[in-house]
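Researcher: I'd like a candidate sequence for this fold, 190 residues long. If you have to choose between options at a position, lean toward the conservative one.
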């Protein structure tokens, strides 16, 4: 709006046959906003500020990728599956290949971001950003006793959180009509 205020949003509903009917669908959304402060009337007389923008975003994504204990895609871990062959290499017959876990649900990643972008003195540009990424309900193979007949069962266990600050700076050392020499650096603190 007015080349100063920006808003974006998205929503998605994903379904996967890897989960039972009760947990098949996942709802994921994101929203982002920014404010170009440098375009405001009160900044018009501040000549040394070329651009100044605040931004923030929040978003969720889902993961349904499940690998079995042998590294292959597991398409129906919520169902008990059987297979024909030799169990433990000795006796032929029908045995479990997957033990059901009907409580499986979507693994979710949540990303949050706050930042400021700037351009100063017609030479210095950069950004400072705080970020946080949380992953919850991670999908992992959990080892099972050999008496169950299978080596593992897929479960939602664990969570991971990463957060930190990222700084990026670029400076035009030499600048004329035909060419520019710039130096840039960035650093991330997690």
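Model: Candidate sequence:
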């Amino acid at each position: 709006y007015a080349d100063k205020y920006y808003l974006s949003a998205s929503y998605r509903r994903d379904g996967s046959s890897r989960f039972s009917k009760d947990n098949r669908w996942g709802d994921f959304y994101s929203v982002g906003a920014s404010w170009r402060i440098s375009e405001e009337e009160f900044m018009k007389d501040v000549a040394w500020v070329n651009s100044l923008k605040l931004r923030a975003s929040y978003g969720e994504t889902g993961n349904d990728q499940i690998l079995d204990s042998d590294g292959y895609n597991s398409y129906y871990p919520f169902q008990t599956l059987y297979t024909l062959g030799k169990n433990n290499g000795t006796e032929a017959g029908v045995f479990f290949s997957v033990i059901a876990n009907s409580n499986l649900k979507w693994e979710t990643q949540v990303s949050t971001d706050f930042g400021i972008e700037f351009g100063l003195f017609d030479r210095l540009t950069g950004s400072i950003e705080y970020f946080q990424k949380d992953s919850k309900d991670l999908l992992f193979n959990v080892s099972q006793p050999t008496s169950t007949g299978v080596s593992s069962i897929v479960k939602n266990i664990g969570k991971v959180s990463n957060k930190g600050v990222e700084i990026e700076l670029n400076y035009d050392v030499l600048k004329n009509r035909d060419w520019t020499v710039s130096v840039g650096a960035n650093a991330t603190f997690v």
